[in-house]
Design a protein that fits this description.
CATH architecture: Beta Barrel
Order of helices and strands: EHEEEEHEEEEHHEEEHEEE
Number of domains: 1
Number of strands: 15
Low-confidence stretches: none
Number of helices: 5
Mean pLDDT: 93
Largest sheet: 10 strands, mixed
Radius of gyration: 19 Å
CATH superfamily: Acetoacetate decarboxylase-like
Length: 317
């Protein structure tokens, strides 16, 4: 069936191009058991009834704050419509698709300040995007404070009103400045890979050499594979989904400008919100965490069509 555009359409067609992505990453320790049950099993393995088999790659998550100077569709006629800026906060979790020997990033939480980006991300790919308001520095030279505020429920009760709450913030508590030592995407990939290995400690991040090679090759060449649970509630019975699928798509870095480490020590603070139990869902050590690694990148990327590796059929429960 053909997609029907309407006036005020917010879901343009892929591929999408982003230019001037100011990316700040904070690597946080997490519990492997919780990531298995609360992420891999809940969103990727259980819905398919075991047709897919994912596991966490290592005991960590990546907290990312991003500013995108420009985001547009590269498909006609949308390419000629215009472009949007965007700010974003996301939790990245590296998972392993054991059936394909592939490492992919999953997103248990992600917020943006652009309703077009939210609609396109949710409807096309399955990004679990919500709306937020952000404080993200303009430059790594003054990367001292980051935050995202969202509409949330602090507790669950019939009397609770949704209020704007600061769900996550990252503040530099000592030191200053940033390095600019990465001039190629391979430099960033190797440095981040070292951070992943440090986060894993004595545990092997990958089970075999083939998977390790493919993952390193992706990092060095700027390929970032994603995996999502894409779903929509059924109109007749809201406890059911009218569509449910597991989607994989690869984001390709088209140009790497620069990057490096954020110097000094940071503290990440996560609010306890009933509607957004970030700490419990990820198995984090607490509501205040010192990152293992803090860094920044500046790059362009493109994200195109994905593939459904599993799709629910009529009659599936």
């Amino acid at each position: 069936m053909k997609y029907i555009d309407r006036g005020g359409e917010q879901v343009y067609c892929q591929p999408f191009e982003a230019k001037g992505v100011h990316f700040y990453g904070f690597l946080l320790s997490a519990d492997m058991g919780v990531l298995q049950t609360q992420l891999c099993d809940k969103y990727l393995n259980d819905p398919s009834g075991g047709a897919t088999k994912f596991r966490p790659a290592a005991p960590f998550v990546l907290l990312a704050f991003c500013k995108l100077d420009g985001l547009n569709s590269n498909a006609m006629p949308y390419k000629d419509y215009g472009w949007f800026s965007e700010q974003e906060t996301a939790i990245w979790v590296l998972t392993v698709d054991e059936q394909r020997d592939t490492a992919l990033w999953a997103f248990p939480y992600i917020w943006v300040d652009n309703p077009y980006a939210m609609a396109m991300g949710r409807e096309i790919y399955g990004f679990p995007k919500g709306l937020g308001a952000f404080d993200i520095p303009d430059s790594p030279d003054n990367a001292d404070k980051f935050s995202v505020d969202i509409l949330a429920l602090k507790t669950f009760s019939p009397e609770t009103k949704g209020t704007i709450e600061r769900v996550i913030q990252a503040n530099r508590v000592s030191g200053s400045g940033a390095t600019s030592e990465w001039t190629e995407v391979g430099d960033a990939g190797k440095a981040i890979l070292k951070g992943l290995a440090d986060a894993a400690g004595n545990e092997d991040i990958w089970d075999d050499l083939k998977l390790a090679y493919n993952t390193i090759d992706n990092l060095i060449h700027g390929r970032v594979p994603f995996v999502f649970l894409k779903q929509f509630r059924d109109v007749a019975d809201g406890t059911n989904a009218c569509h449910q699928s597991i989607v994989e798509v690869t984001c390709k870095m088209t140009k790497f400008h620069s990057g490096g480490l954020l110097l000094g020590e940071y503290e990440v603070a996560i609010e306890e919100l009933a509607s957004h139990p970030v700490v419990a869902d990820l198995g984090l050590a607490g509501h205040k965490i010192t990152p293992i690694l803090s860094y920044w990148n500046y790059f362009d990327f493109e994200i195109g069509p994905g593939v459904e590796i599993w799709k629910a059929q009529p009659g599936d429960k």
